Amino acid sequence: MTAAASRSEALASAGTAEPEWLWRSGSLVPWREARVHVNAVGHASVAAVFEGVKAYLAADGRRLLVFRLEDHLRRLYDSARICRLALPYDLDTLRGAVCGLLTANGYRQDAYLRPWAFPQGVIREQMVPAGTICEVLVDSWPFRSLLEAGGGCRAAVSSWQRISEAAMPPRVKAFSNYHNGRLALMEARENGHDWPIMLNERAKVSEGAGACLALVRDGEVVTPSLTSGVLPGITRDTVLTLLRDLGVRVREREVDRSELYLADELFFMGTAWEILPVTAVDGLTVGDGVPGPLSRRLAAAYTDLVRGRDGRHRHWLTEVPLP
């Protein structure tokens, strides 16, 4: 199995494990008993917002380190605000919910967490009313980090256009927005590629199906600006910070499609994807056709950061002692 296939399989199967507990509306609830009526699904999902957060087992094996929890929760509230949803819990409550859930489920390995909010009860109105009170849940499952697995993926520029600020604001992390990337992903797979790259309404490079993108050319890293139709990625921000720590020049600007074909290196970056090198785009080999030196340095630096070996950004780590 190729590294790209392994990563795809890991992402596809990530949600199959059953934990003992999830957090729902203020208390821990047995995972198997967390139910809603079938009529609560559908219209309520149109407005649902969510986050993906990772907790990594520390290098010392004694703690879980939740990565950038505060930033993820703040973005959840930002998404809810733009969607005009009312979240009935404050940041401290949700922070405690995430840490308490990790402890309750007894994780002693890397764990993925998904805080999410959807309109409470049965929603009959297709256009969910502004100010609707939400249920808030935090779900979790084990995952396998592929930061040290090596390998890369084949990407293709999609015929599907990335959603725009004028239509469905890309800065909102809403389930409905992800259908855009889903269409692009299915097209890429049908045509023999691993992942899509989407262009925006100005035919400039935007992002992948759930991950931001950066290219390396002549020792400089270039990534599409936040006004290019990208989600303001927390991993993106992390990577740009790490690059500056490494003394690498970084530019955020509009990126032309043809620049992808001339890149020395190319990589996706996102919470689920971590750092995923692209070894071919539209059938053209990127660099030498293997993960490049900067991508490998970044993966190593990211690993050291999330495992607690690099203390320069310790404020990004929320410690949860192992049970």
Automatic annotation (TrEMBL):
Reaction(s) catalysed by this chain's protein: L-valine + 2-oxoglutarate = 3-methyl-2-oxobutanoate + L-glutamate; L-isoleucine + 2-oxoglutarate = (S)-3-methyl-2-oxopentanoate + L-glutamate; L-leucine + 2-oxoglutarate = 4-methyl-2-oxopentanoate + L-glutamate
GO MF terms held by the record: branched-chain-amino-acid transaminase activity
Cofactor: pyridoxal 5'-phosphate
Superkingdom of origin organism: Bacteria
One Pfam short name: Aminotran_4
Pathway noted in the entry: Amino-acid biosynthesis; L-isoleucine biosynthesis; L-isoleucine from 2-oxobutanoate: step 4/4; Amino-acid biosynthesis; L-leucine biosynthesis; L-leucine from 3-methyl-2-oxobutanoate: step 4/4; Amino-acid biosynthesis; L-valine biosynthesis; L-valine from pyruvate: step 4/4
Matches recorded under InterPro entries: Aminotrans_IV, Aminotransferase-like, B_amino_transI, BCAT-like_C, BCAT-like_N, Class-IV_PLP-Dep_Aminotrnsfr
GO biological process, one term: L-valine biosynthetic process
Enzyme class, spelled out: transferase
EC number of the protein: 2.6.1.42
Keyword field: Amino-acid biosynthesis, Aminotransferase, Branched-chain amino acid biosynthesis, Pyridoxal phosphate, Transferase
Function: Acts on leucine, isoleucine and valine.
Family per similarity comment: Belongs to the class-IV pyridoxal-phosphate-dependent aminotransferase family.
Protein name per Swiss-Prot or TrEMBL: Branched-chain-amino-acid aminotransferase
